[in-house]
Structures are given as structure tokens and as C-alpha cells.
Here is the input.
Amino acid sequence: MSIWLSVVGIGEDGLAGLTPSARTLVDAAEVLVGGGRHLAMLPEDGRPRVAWPKPMDSVIPEILRQRGRRVCVLASGDPSCFGVARKLLRAIPLREMVILPAPSAFSLACARLGWSLPDIETVSLHWRPVEGLHPHLLPGNRLVILTRDGATPGQIAALLRARGYGQSRMTLLARMGGPQEARLDGLAASWDAKDAPDLNVVAVDCVADPGVPLLARVPGLPDDAFRNDGQLTKRELRAATLAALAPVPGQRLWDVGAGCGSIAIEWLRAEPRASAIAIERKAERIALIAENVAALGVPELEIKQGEAPAALDGLASPDAVFIGGGLGAAGVFETCWNALSSGGRLAANAVTLEGEAALFAWHGQVGGSLTRIAVSRAAPLGGRTAWRPLMPVTQFAAAKP
Here is the structure.
């Protein structure tokens, strides 16, 4: 089928800012689709108009019903940058559409601030809680954030203060590129703007207060970064486990017997484009996982209460599996291994002789590697310092052929 759908980025300057080719697509369209703000930029001429509903996905069937007619979708800035193009491409082949972007909000913000686009981190809070910022809060980091509404800048400032980044410089940029463009600068510590326009972005130049713990995205967060009841994979072993699991963009982790969720959380912090499911049988630990998810900024983590292997039924197939609990439960390893995609990785740790026996048995079935990890930490002993060993751990890791 020939091209029937055009996706045109439009800025705050409306039709005047469109390129000649983009204006031709808008003028030639038989059906117009867009947000109320976008459609209001066009003079009323009798053509059918479809406004974005909530949720936005519900308009896709209506667009598909127009297949064969010339349809133009209007979107803010660059439709491929946290925009509608991604949703449309899930349902409509690229060969049936043309996408013409305008400058994105990120490009406009960098132009206003004199920042280099490749040197910043871009974040969208359109459909995510503000806690999603946590992994990005690192000294010297520069963020440009698409906000949800006029209340979001204040929420960002509150989160920065709570995390010890109150001296971070914030810039609110509203309605960029149009006659009502506005700017507000300040520090998170004293930010008190309450009536920001709904259409805004916030730029943050991250500055940490002295002594604030550094929570990097490299696996191996400090143990005290997690709320836990003692069921926690310790920092050194956690880093080794994530190395064996190897987070990859677009891949899914099962964290089976998740405890406080530390492995799944660090998997997502290391690779934000991955996904993860934490499976835990105890309700009190489910609550701990939820608290850690909010505190460490991975709201996309899926949490499921239940006991493996029964709780694994119906879950989307994993590309990596960590078995943190239930090593000796019948059928857990077999269920996980059979569900694992080709080339997928499985890792498990044991501290008991019974757990080690299970790992040796699995190694005998599928190969892989067995590693003994012994860690000692320096600690006071009387008036001196001595090594205090943690319990040695046997780690099993294997890749599915």
C-alpha cells in the first residue's frame, strides 16, 4: 500500500513554522488528528478532526479505519522523540507513512541554555512518576526533563531537596518557540513556583550537597541503599551476579525469590531499556520491594506475589533469570531453564550445603560455571581492626544454547 499517513511535528509557532513540505502534507490531508492545542492552530475548514483521547492508544483503531484516505497526525516537536510515532509504528508499517519532525523540546532547551545535546540526559515524566529521576541524580549530570503538567517542576524540586541535591540549578522553559515563551531560573532548595504553565520542560544541572551518598548506576549499590529484612544479596556478590546476568537493552529479567528486589532494581538501573519482573512469596517483602522501587527510581519494575514455580505460569518469557530463593523447590530450575530464551543467562547463589547441592546438580545437567566467592570486610575488633568474613557463596551461571 502507498503512503496514506503523515506524522507532522509542529511547534508553538504553528503553521508559520512548518517547512513547505510539511505544510503541503497538512493542507492535502483529508482527516486531521492531534491534540486540542494542535488542532486549534489550524483554521476551521470543514475537514474531519480527531482529537487525542485519553488513553492516547485508543485513537489508533480510529486512524486504522481511515486507511486509504490521506490522514495527517499533528504532534509536538519531534514525533519520534518520546512522541506518538512510536505508538503508530506498532500498528502501522513505516512504508505506509512519512514522518516530518520539527525541533524537539530537548533541542530547543539546549539552544536556550547553551548545552550540547549529546552531553545531556533526556528524561520524560509524561507517563512516569517523578521518582523515575532517581537513577539520573549524579553530580555534574545535566538533565532535560519533559514534565507532565504545571505541578511537575515543584515535584522535581522537592525530590532534589530530599535526595540532597538542593543546590542543583533548575530552569523552567515554557511554550518554547512561540510568542508566550517563558523562562524561570532558580535553585531546587528555594524553588517555590506554583503556577507553571502545563506545557513546560525543566532543565537540571545536578549539584550534590557535601556528603550525599553516591548512588551510581554501576551495579553494586551500598547495602544500606535498600530497605530489607536481611534477605539481601550483599553488595560485592550483587555486582558479580549482575555481571553474570549481563543487562541488555530490550531484554527481560525474572528475579525469582526476589527478597527486597535488589537484583531486579539494579538490572533496571544499569539498563533502563530493559524490563524485569520480581517474584516474591512473602507479602512483607513485596512491600519492601515497592519501597525500594520508589526510592531508587525504577517504577517500571513489575512485582508479582507468589511462590515459584506456580507463580511463573503465564509470565512473559525471560532473557535472564536470577534464582535468589527456592533453590531446592521442586521444578523451579526446570521451569526457569525451559522458559529462558535461546542465548539467555541464568544465575543463582547458594550459602547452604543444600543449596550448593542443587547448584551442583544443575551444573551437571546444563553445564555452565561454578564460582566460590568469599568476601571479608574490615571491622573494629576491640581497639584494633580485623577482617570479618561474610558467609562464602557458591555462584552458578549458565547460558542457554
